[in-house]
Design brief:
Blueprint: H1 5-25, H2 37-62, H3 66-84, H4 90-106
Helix pairs in contact: 1-2, 2-4, 3-4
Amino acid sequence: MKINQELNAKLKSETKIFQQYLSLINSKESAITVGYQREAEKAKLDFLSFYLDSVVKVIAEYAQDPQTESILNEQVSSIQSLIKNNDRDTKLCIKKMEETSNYWNSLCY
């Protein structure tokens, strides 16, 4: 799928924030102790929710084709159902949100 130039530029600026998130959580120097693991997972969920909300707004404003909108709607529905059930499996929710974020980042050229 190819996205339009305006959407591409907007997604690229959003991508920088997500890349900072990934470098922070993947840093070996900032190991989170077991006692704070639940708080760290909640912070990840909060950040990813905020980030994906920003991406959804950008796509809704700048996407000009039905295919992009269709893919966006599918992914938003999937994430909404995961968020509703995130107390059961927080790690799965975080993983799915990260995969969705990576997907939108991969569309940038």
